[in-house]
Each structure stands twice: as structure tokens, then as C-alpha cells.
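Collaborator request, handled under Task 6.
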Amino acid sequence: MATHVYPVLLWRDASGGVTGLLVGDYRGATAYGSTQQEVLRQLGEALDWRAEHESYSISAELLEPQLREVKVDVRAQYKDETEHRLIPAPETVTLRVPCVTGKAENGLPVCEVPVLELRFHFHNEAQLKDLVRHYVKDHLTGQTPADLALKLPPRGAWLDKVTVRDVRTSSRQTPMREREDMQVLFTVADPLLHERGNQSAAYGRDAQVMALLGKLTHERAHVLLVGAAGSGKSTIISDAARRMARLSTEDEADKSMRTWRCWRGSGARMIAGMKYLGQWEERCEEFIRRLSEIEGIFCVENLLELLRVGGTEANDSVGAFLLPYLQRRDLHMVAEATPAEVDACRRLMPGLLDVFQIIHVPPFADADALSVLERVAHACSTASRLEFAAGSVTLVHRLFRRFQPYAAFPGPASAFIRKLAEQAARRPLESRQISCDDVMALFIQQTGLPELLLRDEVTLPLPDVHATLSRQIIGQDGAVDAASRVITSIKAGMTDPGRPQGVLLFCGPTGVGKTALARAMAEFCFGAGAEKERLVRLDMSEYSGWGAANRLLHAPNGDAASWIQKLRRQPFSVLLFDEVEKAAAEVYDVLLGLLDEGRITDRFGRVTDFRSAIIVMTSNLGASAKGAMGFGAENVAPGFEGAVKKFFRPEFFNRLDAVVTFDALTKEHVREIALKELQDLSQREGLSAAGLKLEWSDALLEKLIQDGYDHRFGARPLQRALERLVVTPLAKWRLAHPQHQKGTITAAWTDGAAQLLWS
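C-alpha cells returned to the collaborator:
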């Protein structure tokens, strides 16, 4: 039987004992003994056991290994605990760092620093020493002299090797990826047990794992796992595949193929690159033939997708093509689907579901979900040598349960914990503790929710919210008050978890701040993350006429519309349906499910959840009433709510949380808006970067109000007047005088024109 050769870094300590460190092994296998032979024997026995029982966990060997020694100058740093700062040591320490270079399986040069667990690829031999110095210094940054002493590399190290029997492939000289007969498998799918990062256990799902294992091995049945997205279906399949690889049967011809039996792929990969008639069908046949030769199992990521690709209808799709092979058991398959996708499959092709035995993956109870997250955190702690502070995992569970109640456990929350561990693993070893503050910071970054909404101990009085929004929205106290109540309800956790965070209809004349208030709500509620733009706006006048509902939901290529894709990527957003009354009647039927249950399901069973979003609609209904103009209607009862009730069907109107009426603007409001716009203009980059301040005269302000007044269009003409009277002259002046820095520009209105003075 073929063998692998793995390099071992050896060194002798002061007592005469020998330490050996396996190079290239991600588990950092180490042995200690009185002689070199004893150390190599221990490492060899460990690798033999893992090759027999956990062959998928052995890292690829390092080819053509060579030992090198690189001098690295490192400066230790003292910690001042009183002032919480680092003080560099006066002198540097020269370390002789042993490095092992070689080639990875793909032929690329690679360098490892085993004693520091560093590994990187390089392309230029001349730059190797500089790269070693860079990575070692970066790894040892912030180390105190005591810490640095614990990481001093050994002196006089040498290189040896240890061998392990190959049970993963029948021929090491011909790796699986280089075998011509296996190319079609790698084209369509990936070997499940040889994927990077695919070592997670299915915590809390032992019953489902054993049921799947029994159906795949004893019954050789096709299995469909049905559960919500994120409930752990993929992890269950991976765990069952690992247990299947450990099973040993007497009649198994080639035990080395056990870890290559399960292949994860999709319908999209099956047809990728196929341009001509019959090409993808030929690839499918070749894939099925090669997979059956190794008694393999095709693990499909999404069963419904098989019915969506390959043709225009389900009857000429990849799923329809594979169905006869499944019925004859020429192809062995395990697939995943959500309940909504199962319903869609039943509508599109009932015969496909009939060949599967279904295993349901139920949601976790709160106590079970927390237990699973704690086990995930423990696994991350062990793998990355870090620590989760008390209460941090509980905080993760609370945040996801409260602010993403629709998300199934453990999927998103587990990924969140692994992201925390990944960030902590980049820190120095002594700083690898994940605190509640780290949890909160990452959750804010991902969701955009501000800390004042997330922390229960931070109060958020209604007047404070009202004051914040009023600074941006002028002259609309009633509308701002309604928006403030929605925000405080989110803070108090009193919103219905089965619906969007709020469903508001903004009614009023044009140009009075309806869209601006929606934008202000998006900034206040979701603007704390890395992605600042959280307003998704649709002009509903584009969705009138024939086929409007289909255009609302689908892109021309049949995929989900771009606004739906945005909400899938970032569910914490404000969704604005502008001028909703102009949409076709069939669009309102589509929106009923969104407003009531916070989700939209298309004909393929794909569900988009909106329960973390705030839904805002704007309308001009009722604005044609006498006196309902953008300015000056001080004593007019607008009657907007009556117009809304008359226009929309009762079932649509009853799904609104509030109809928010915007008042007409007075001239005093226009003055405040003009002042706000001038102040915002003074903060633009063209001025602030040059250290310039902007001031203006009363005459210019009055001219802006005069030219910006139009009873038909509200405050919008004010923007055009500002651009014409101030912004354009200011831009010309800046281009003509680039030398003027750190001064004050005064904008005045004299002799019928804008005048700019610099001082």
C-alpha cells in the first residue's frame, strides 16, 4: 500500500530530551521522548490511527521539504496597566527562526514556521526571508518580554520524516484530482469530506444523523431533508458522511474510497459552460456513470433548483432528466429543501418527490438552541485557543432570538460565533478572549442596529427620538411623532415578531418630507453598521399596467428582482414604496403577504423575509382637496385618511399600522429648511477638506426662500434654487481659486447676483 511522507521538525532541550513537531498538520501534533526514534514512532502511530479512523482530517503533505533558518529582529513591549498603553523595550532581540519550505500538492511553493503555527505561499525565492520577517514580526507584535521568552524558537533544530499508510486513495502517485476518470465529478461537485471548513458536527441532531445514516447505508434510499434555512441540514449530511466513512465492511473492495463517496453539487454546476443542445445531458450521464462506479452519493444543495435550471419549464429541467435514473437507482441522492420549496416541487413535478424518503429537521427549543451554541463556542475555543467570556454566548442567542426571530437556529448564530472566533484568532494569544462587547460590536456591524436599540440598560425616551428626527424633518411634528413611536416599540421589543417592524403609509402633498422621513428612519435604526445606505426605494409608478406583479418580483432573467436580492443580503433596512397608489391592482395582492406576515414567496417556493425591515409607503391621495398645497394651507383639514380608505380595499388598509399625515409647509418652515440646507452645504467635502467655512447674508437667504417657493411642488424647488444661486457659483469660485485654504467664504446677494467673498 502507498504511503505519505510528512516532515518533522526536531530539537533537543537542555535536559537531553527530544521534541518533534509535525510540519503541515493543522492540529499541531507534537511528541516528546528521550530519543529521536521514540518521537518519530509516537507521531507515526498517531498518524496511522487518524489515517484509519479519520482519514479526511489529515492535511496534505509538504513535498520536497527543506529546513532554513532566518534571523528576525523583534522588539518586546511592556504593558503599562495604569495608562493602558504599550512601551517598547530599548533593544531588539534577534531570533533564529527555523522555517520549512516545500511545495503544496498544487505545486505552489509554501513556507511554514512550525513553532509559531504560521503558513504562507510565496512566489519569489529572493523575497522569502523578507516575508518570514514580516509574518513573524506581525505575529509577535505586542509581546512582553515574558511572553516572548515562551515563544523563543529552538536552537539547533533538524528535519526528519515520518510515514503514514495511504487509505484515502488507491494510488498516491495519481491523486484524485489528477485522475482522468474523476474529472467530471470535480466539475459538477466537490468531495464532501475533503472540503475546507467542513468539519462541524451536527450538535443536537443525533437522531436525524442516525436516521439519515441508516437510510443511506442499509436501505440505500434517496433522502430529502426538510427544514427551515439555517436549521442545520447541510451539517447533518456532512456528519452522516463522516460516520459513513468510518464504517468498515468485509466486502468493501477499496476502503480508501470511503471518504470520496459523498459529493456535494448543484444543478447550476451541472449545466455550467454547456452551450449546445445535448451537452449538459451528456455531462449528466457521464457524472452518473462515474459516481455509480465508486458507489457515490450525490448531495444536492437545493432540490428545487434542479427544477429551475436546464430548461424553460420543469419538464425539461435537470431534475426531470435525473428522475428516471433515480427511479432505477442508477443515481443515489440526498437533497435539502425548505417546506415552501417542497410545496413548490410538488406543484411543479410531484414524481420527483415520490422517489425520496423525507426526514424532517424540526426547529430547536430555546434551551436546546443555547446548548448548541455553547458547544459550537467550545469547539471554536479548542481549535483556536481562545476563550468566550461568561455571558457572551447567551448574548448571541438573545440578540438573534430578539432581532432575527425568524432565523432558524443554529445556522446564522453559529456562523456569527465562528466569525467572532476568526476575529479573535488574529489577536495575540494572551488577548484571545471574546467579550460581550465583541459580540455587540460585530452584531452592530452586521445589522446596522445602533447600540442604544440593542442594550436593554440604555434608555431611549420618546422625546429624544422625536428631537433627533425633528432636526432633519422640519414642520412635521405629527409625522415625526408617529415614526418615533415605531422606533421606541422596536427598542422595547414590543413589535409583533411575525410581522415587519412597522408598516406605515405616509400621506401628504408633494415635497413636504415624506421620503426624507423614511431616509431619516433608516439612518437612525440601521445606520450604525459598515453599510450605511439602508433605504431600498421603489417608484411604484413603474409597476402599473399589464404584468406589473411579475415585474415587481422577478428580474428579466427569471431571478428575484434586484430590490428583493438587496433585502436578502441585508434584511435590516427601510423598504420604501414611493407613490404606492400608482401601482397596478395586482401589485396590492402581492403586497398583502408582505405587510401581514413579512414575507414574499415566489412560484419556485423561494421565501424572502421582511420581518427585520420597516415598510414605508408614500401617497399623494387626498392632496387634491381644496387648499392641500405644499405651502400655505394653514387651516385646511386634509382628509387624507378618508381618501386612503376609499382608494384601498379593506384587507389592504387593515394591514397598515398607521396612516401618517404630513402637514402643508408654512413660510417659516421654508426658512428653517433653507437654513438647514445651507448648513449641510457648508459641511461638504469641497469646503471642509480645504478648511473653508461658509457664511451667508440675510439677503441671500430671503432670495432662496423667494425663488424656492412654489405652492404646487412643496420644498423641492428650494433644492433647485440652492443649486442655481449658491452651489454652482461656489463650485466655479473653488475651481478658479484653488489656492485659498482655511478661511471663510461669505455668500451674499447684491445687484441681482450671488457674490462670494473670501476672508
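The cover message to the collaborator said: "The chain is about 40% helix and 20% strand. Residues 176-360 form a domain with the Rossmann fold fold (CATH 3.40.50.300). Please let us know whether this matches your experimental observations."
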